[in-house]
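Notebook, student rotation project (T.W.).
Task set for the rotation: take a protein with a known small-molecule partner, predict the structure of the complex, and write up what can be learned from the model alone. Partner molecule chosen: pyridoxal-5'-phosphate. Sequence and SMILES entered below by T.W., checked by me.
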Amino acid sequence: MTRTWKEIPLFEGVTDEEWDDWHWQLRNRLSTAEDFDKLLNMTDQQRADLERCMGKFRMAVTPYYASLMDPDDPKCPVRMQGVPSPLELVVHGEDMEDAIAETIDSPTPNITHRYPDRVLFVVTEMCSMYCRHCTRRRIVGGHESMVSQKVIADAITYIERNKEVRDVLISGGDPLVLSDEQLEEILARVRAIDHVEIMRIGSRMPVVCPQRITPELVAMLKKYHPLYLNTHFNHPKEITPDSTRACAMLADAGINLGNQSVLLRGINDCANVMRKLVHGLLRIRVKPYYLYQCDLAMGTNHFRTSVAKGIEIYESLRGHTTGFAVPMYIIDAVGGGGKTPVMPNYLISMSQHQVVLRNYEGVISKYKEPDDYVEDECQCEDCTAGRVRKGVAGLFDVVGPTLEDVWAARMQKIVDRKSIMADIQGPVEQ
Ligand SMILES: *Cc1c(COP(=O)(O)O)cnc(C)c1O
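Predicted structure of the complex:
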């Protein structure tokens, strides 16, 4: 059953102005079992289950996103992402507090510097809604107060001091819960750093609170190009006239939009649903960027699928539809291993000077390589200056021949990055 918000008794008396005001949306989030009792037609059992879940992980849903929920269907994909299930209370052996170990690579609070040339900068721990599958649920929503000015200032100092950083990913929480002024202050300070080439915002607001995307916001954002924004649609049902308008406004301001979905059991673990989602995203000018395997975050076991399901979905898209509709399928490796792409095997055999491939339809072909390929010495600026960029095998040449050497080099990087802030945060922790 679908209904417009005006048909929902819970929102009786709400005016259009209120509904369209993102502050109203945030102030009136549904956050108690009683709120959902008024919105949804729950059985006694469902109500009791919901009450049991309260207090374990933060819960809140904007009235807008709540209005997309099917009141009669507990398996509604929007409902499953917003309403806690008692399965969240079940902890499995593999569940972890910080599944992707973001704190290991943190040279200063709220910065994760995991990859060589870019950092993740958490500017708030608050979201407009709390996804039940959140990977960062250890911190997100833990306290809804602002991140302190000192933490923000130190993070910016780190970016200033580390000239390797050319890409800053502003995330949270959801950075768009900040006011335009607060966000602009951060964007302006990061943009002022010479070596920062691009900025990206990670926000689910276009999906869960499209009212946040106002003419004033986009006018502010477009001053800070090149600026990219990645959002988080998981199901075609989330593509509504409102989310479509929000994306159009951002795209019209020249902000490239990407989407990061999470593969979720019962929500989008179906090749047809995913195909409908990626096609819908391209129609609203959003490029499917990543499809994540669900992380091992606490209480999310019931959302996880097999990896085989992800491979099957990828295979059902690649070749069958527009190439740039196909997101890269990623497992974020535990312990801070980082994003690892996972793919079906298209390269099925190799011998000297030839490879055997299979295409999306299973057709096998041979590609004959040149017999005499050797790379000419490259004359580009970086190569002549001796800057080596090679694959994993080449990396071993640089750091040493064993796994221990690679590990030691990684640990050294962490210490070096922490030492950048030594004068601010005291002695470097080993
Ligand atoms: C995801 C992520 C990034 C960005 O990764 P891309 O593959 O460049 O999109 C950067 N830092 C951290 C810690 C991340 O988790």
